[in-house]
Recover the amino acids of this structure.
């Protein structure tokens, strides 16, 4: 019982941290075609590894933008509580792939969503169905407003 309580406290504590972090992280405006989003930037290995794990909700105009060196990539939905659209962009910011409505995964062996192209630079995670609702299409351009200096 004691061990179970300890793990439960750690789990719920990390969930509270994820929510608190989401509220305090600076947001950057991005556009994809004519759709605008306020996003958290995931630039460090730690930020990319954590992503949107343990988030119970994501407002419709929010998302997370992963920035990586150009190359192939693969995402999974391990410990992600909400369904997401995954948008893969090339080095020029052109949308090359949409993984629509990737479901949450709470099991050990989660599906992997690899890029179909070898040169992915940006990956945008938004609420499931949001790409279709906003008319986002392959070939649309990603425009990133530079975050304000600290």
């Amino acid at each position: 019982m004691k061990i179970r309580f300890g793990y439960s406290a750690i789990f719920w504590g990390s969930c509270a941290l994820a929510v608190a972090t989401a509220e305090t992280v600076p947001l950057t405006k991005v556009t994809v075609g004519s759709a605008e989003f306020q996003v958290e930037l995931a630039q460090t290995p730690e930020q990319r590894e954590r992503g949107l794990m343990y988030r119970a909700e994501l407002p419709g105009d929010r998302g997370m933008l992963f920035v990586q060196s150009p190359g192939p990539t693969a995402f999974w939905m391990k410990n992600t509580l909400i369904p997401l659209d995954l948008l893969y962009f090339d080095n020029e910011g052109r949308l090359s792939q949409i993984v629509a409505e990737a479901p949450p995964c709470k099991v050990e062996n989660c599906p992997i969503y690899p890029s179909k192209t070898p040169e992915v630079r940006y990956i945008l995670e938004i609420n499931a169905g949001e790409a279709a609702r906003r008319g986002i299409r392959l070939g649309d351009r990603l425009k990133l407003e530079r975050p304000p200096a600290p």
